[in-house]
Amino acid sequence: MYLNLIEGPGVSYQAEVDEWQVTSPSTRIELNPSSAEGFPAGWVLIKASLNHQGFGFSGRLVAITKSQQEYSYELPVSLKGTLFELLHFPDDVVSLSFEPSGASGAFSVNQLTLRKVKWHERLYLMWKRVISVVEKQPYDVLYKSGMRWYTPFVSLKGAYALSGGFRAYSPQISYANWIARFDELDDRDVKKISNAVKRIKHPPFIDLVLLGEQSQVETDHFNTQLYPHAGITSFGQLKSDWVLCIDPGVVLRPHALYWLATAINENPNALAFYSDHDLILDNGVRVEPYFKPDWSPELLLAAPYMGPLLLVKRTLLEGLLSKKDGKGVSCYQLALGCLSLVNSGNEASPIIHIPAVLYHWSKSEYIKFLQNSNRQLDMVSNYLDESGIEAKLDLLNHQYHKVVYTPIKEPLISIIIPTRDTLHHLERSVMSVLTQSTYKNFEIVIADNESVEPETHAFFEKVSRYENVSVVPYNFPFNYSAINNFAVKHSKGDVIVLLNNDTEVISDQWLEVMLGQLQQPNVGAVGVKLLFGDRRVQHAGDAVGPGGCADHFHSRLDEDDPGYFGRAIIAQDLSAVTAACLMVSRQVWEQLGGLDEENLAVAFNDVDFCLRVREAGLRVVFTPYAKLYHHESVSRGKDDSPEKAARAKREADYMRSRWKPIMNHDPFYNPNLNYSRPDFTLSNAPRVNKPWLRAK
To answer: For the chain, how big is the Rg over CA atoms in Å?
Structure first.
């Protein structure tokens, strides 16, 4: 597709377009100058307002000279979709093309401008960005990125380029570059760690137990540890309070034991610790980092996500082992044992996650592990049997575990559907529930918020003839929270389902799946997988904080795409799920007072409710094994008026104030990942506080 640039007032080049479909990450839009003068040379400023529905937002500009030399310019984008970048063009550019996205998807541009800038404007814009980044980023993050106090004075151009990497949608960083910037231990780090070890008043001794068959070569790396208070032993000869259990193929990093020892002292009541890891090839190259969420009981059943290394308290370990020698025991078995104790109401502190790559796992050993996936499935089956939990268990994608729980009894479920006209959506939603659901003990309560169309009222009269359907009028201004609270008061069920009027049932056993999940230990709310009409993912759980306030995980992925380490297709604990389809018990609903109709009339009320569920000590679980279509917010419209925009800002500000700690660290989204939006790409500014940098 060709995009012709036209001259506009006050600028050299300008283009206005509506929308096009990016069919592949390599799509290029050729930019043509409007006059014979050609493209500008020297420093130019490119500006655009972009909107991309999907991931891979960063763009690229490619310039080709008369001699066919190609110049490539990476284009970072702000969170709001603003492209604003200074570039230096050679003198003889004959071709200029724009790559709008790093991935396929719908993409729109409101305005694209390209103009030459004078030297004083360039200096001002460069210093402005550099100063902003230096003020906001921690010193260690700046240091690892290559920024020094003198960098802007020696090379303002270089400092400007480094600062661009901190913009929300900066070009994705490779893992090799990420390691070089943020994860390599240099002499400065080693010295600080060595000094920090000496200052530990009560250094815990750590017993290292090597599980399975491990060679001498695999154990040699323990001698490189910067923390000396540890030793290799066996289950039968434990002498310390903490035991580090290690599966075959694990290579500890030099600072691993120090970080674990620090975590022990900072969490004296913890049961166990685990960390992030990556894979290592035979040639020593590190690949495939797994940046994990914090403790997630449901995810542990779905996958051995805690990995092949687990630090366990000795008293807990002795209760988990069936034999003192521990033959045949794996880290996954031990982790499931921890799950059993935690879910039984144990009063101890939770399992602690350390968000750092503390070890590498041999790629070849990892492949062997995957080839034994049926063994892991048997471990989950044994856990369910021993816990007395009835569930259907299947292997998913050859490596994950699909656990669908059998509901206990069949309580009355009240399905709450707020609406205002939009009959073409409402009728499809209601009738899909009535005709597609295999669970029969439910009622539908339609909350009518002043519908005016005769066709809508005719449908109300028709559908009310069903014994389990009622329509209750809510004759007040739109307030999503108040409407749902009102409708719940007019319902009878022991279980509540909040359901948008623009949803449509796909899975006929959606209520059974949600109910079985809700009835598991300590579960307070359950959400499901929602799809757009083209069967791409609309919702697979919510992140709180990334994206500015709250945002959906895995948005726009294909329906069966596993996403980041399977998290788009397996059940897991999360901070929040959407109320477009959310199940909660009446007891929990009334305990928490329903949705917040005072502070969150329209947006984020579901996220706030889920966070209050977790605040009450209960779990919020996302299950992808129930699916519905969802045409997002069709009845409410967009926040495009000044009044709606002000209300949206007010509600977002309330959320950021009320839930500030969670906004800064969603426990189910790793701080080493991009925090501008939850797309699971590597962060250009990891939010990890390394212990040797805070040690005194």
So the answer is: 28
Lowest-pLDDT range of 19-33, 182-196, 323-337, 432-446: 19-33
Domain with CATH 2.60.120.260 in the chain: 2-117
Mean residue pLDDT across the chain: 87
Tell me how far CA of residue 15 lies from CA of 9, 31, 115, 347, 646, in angstroms. Answer: 12, 9, 12, 63, 30
Q: Using the CB atoms, write b or e for 574-590: b if 16+ within 10 Å.
A: bbbbbbbbbbbbbebbe
The one-letter amino acid code at 531 reads L
Pairing of strands 19-22, 572-573: unpaired
Residue type, 228: P
Is the pLDDT at 12 greater than 80? The verdict is no
Q: Which residue type does 102 have? A: G
**CA–CA distance, 10 with 407 (Å, rounded to integer):** 67
Please count the other Cβ atoms lying within 10 Å of the Cβ belonging to residue 551. 18
Fold annotation for 2-117: Jelly Rolls (2.60.120)
Each residue of 568-591: pLDDT tens digit?
999 999 999 999 999 999 999 999
Asked if residues 358 and 252 have their Cβ atoms less than 8 Å apart, the reply is yes
Tens of pLDDT, residues 246-275: 999 999 999 999 999 999 999 988 989 999
- Rounded Cα distance, 547 and 80, in Å: 10
- Record the tokens describing residue 619, joined without a space: 């779990």
The residues, ordered by sequence, that sit 6+ positions from 554 with a Cβ below 8 Å of its Cβ are 537, 540, 541, 561, 563, 564, 567, 568
Say what the pTM is: 0.84
* Closest to 334 in 3D by CA, of 267, 438, 243, 410: 243
10 Å CB burial of residue 246 (0-12, 13-18, 19+) is buried
At position 692, the amino acid (one-letter code) is W
* Angle (CA) 136 138 142, round 5°: 95
Question: What is the widest separation between alpha-carbon atoms in the chain?
Answer: 84
Mean pLDDT of 313-328: 75
Would you give the distance in Å from CA 545 to the centre of its chain?
10
Q: Is the pLDDT of residue 494 over 50?
A: yes
- pLDDT one-digit tens code per residue, 53-105: 555 556 778 889 988 998 888 887 776 678 889 999 998 888 888 776 555 55
Please give the C-alpha separations between residue 142 and each of 401, 589, 696, in angstroms, as whole numbers: 41, 45, 21
Weakest mean pLDDT among 317-331, 335-349, 413-427: 335-349
Distance CA 313, CA 273 (A): 9
Are 610 and 662 contacting, i.e. CB atoms less than 8 angstroms apart? no
Amino acid at 574: L
CA distance 373 to 376: 5
CA distance 75 to 328: 52
Instruction: Pinpoint the residues of the chain covered by CATH 3.90.550.10.
Output: 187-405, 413-660
Give the domain 187-405 fold.
Answer: Spore Coat Polysaccharide Biosynthesis Protein SpsA; Chain A (3.90.550)
Which CATH code, of 3.40.50.150, 3.40.50.720, 3.90.550.10, 3.40.50.2000, is assigned to 413-660?
3.90.550.10
Residue 24, burial from CB neighbour count under 10 angstroms (0-12, 13-18, 19+)? exposed
Confidence (pLDDT) at 325: 53
